[in-house]
Amino acid sequence: MATRASIFQGLEEAPADPILGLETAFRADPDPRKVNLGAGAYRTEEGKPYVFRCVRQIDIDMAADVNLYKEYLPIDGLADLKKPTQELLFGEDSPAIAEGRICSTQALSGTGGLRVAAEFIKTFLPKCKTVYISDPTWPNHPNIFKKAGLEVEYYPYWNPATLSINFEAMKHTLEAAAPHSVVLLHACAHNPTGMDLNEAQWREILEMCKRKQFVPIIDNAYQGYASGDIVRDGFSTRLFCNEGNMEMFVCQSFAKNMGLYGERIGMLHIVCASAERAKTVLSQVKRVIRPMYSSPPLHGARIVSRLLGDPHAKQAWLAELKELAGRVQGVRATLRGGLEAKGTPGKWNHITDQIGMFSFTGLSRDQAERMTKHWHIYMMGNGRISLAGLNNSNLQYVVDAIDEVVRAVPSGQSNM
């Protein structure tokens, strides 16, 4: 039978995703010493995936509930999610909640919320043509906004020479941005650097956003996971909403802080100037969602609703979340201590200055490549590692690897 020409003949194979591709390479590596420090998911001390105890109990309860069905959700998701997720973000005493000024819709975790926000901005906010994103950032951020047809620019965030936030350069770039620009901000546990603005710096950025009529999008992926404290990690979001009275978008994910990675459960909240505006905005957000995915997933939504709606379940979750965040903080201290005890060239205090799941180690791309090829330690090329992948059985091995790599490839290390 003759082979006919394929309509896909000119299509080239896409490069592997920089994060998900690491998982594939790790699984294919037969070396028993291999360590996966690329995955953005919590791992136990035994290196295994983790399901929150409170989540598992809710799953058991739902499985036994014969009155639960599998019908479609409305376009904007489970109604019972709206108020408790708003209160988690903005605080129970938020004026915006009391006045009905927040339009909320269930979203496909953080990525889905960002994409819906991007499509909404492109469709309905013609003055907002450009999105400013931190450099560095989560690799998927620019793709989301570019695919929606928005222009993407970057503001400096990280100073590789000092391994700290480059706040003056950040302000300088944003001051030069056009009015009505969209500014994407990380609520806490900045990915990948793990370095957050302090309260005074957040207030400066808020003042600039108001003065220049910027449209903030706050990506809230790690609330409670950064410090172990929901309120502390919610500072920036509450500041912009409750004190700043900003109209803004907030994308809320429960992948990390409830361990619901595969459930794809999150929320998109849009803070508006009035309840009337919020009602109008919601009507148009639903028009954006309908041809995109029509209706969000049900199972994860029920888990979050039950967890936040039951005071006892909520307290159990907060305690468990604090426990997990504490383990990651302990790993930070141990990693830094191990490198300093070994006399590894460079300064390593930035490891404990950072917060959240990731550490921006300061290793160069060449050093990261050697970590993978020589030591079978899988990590991002920009030097980011997931601390949740470290435990008592592999931490010294990783310390030894970093020490050897820094000595073998010294020219690329920025913190020496």
UniProtKB/TrEMBL annotation:
GO BP of this protein: amino acid metabolic process
Gene3D superfamilies: Aspartate Aminotransferase, domain 1 (3.90.1150.10), Type I PLP-dependent aspartate aminotransferase-like (Major domain) (3.40.640.10)
Alphabetically ordered keywords of this record: Aminotransferase, Pyridoxal phosphate, Transferase
Keyword Transferase assigned: yes
Keyword Nucleotide-binding in annotation: no
Enzyme class (EC, first level): transferase
UniProt xrefs under CDD domains: AAT_like
EC number(s) reported in the record: 2.6.1.1
Cofactor(s) the protein needs: pyridoxal 5'-phosphate
PANTHER family: ASPARTATE AMINOTRANSFERASE (PTHR11879), ASPARTATE AMINOTRANSFERASE, MITOCHONDRIAL (PTHR11879:SF22)
Note: In eukaryotes there are cytoplasmic, mitochondrial and chloroplastic isozymes.
Name under which the protein is recorded: Aspartate aminotransferase
Source species of the chain: Besnoitia besnoiti
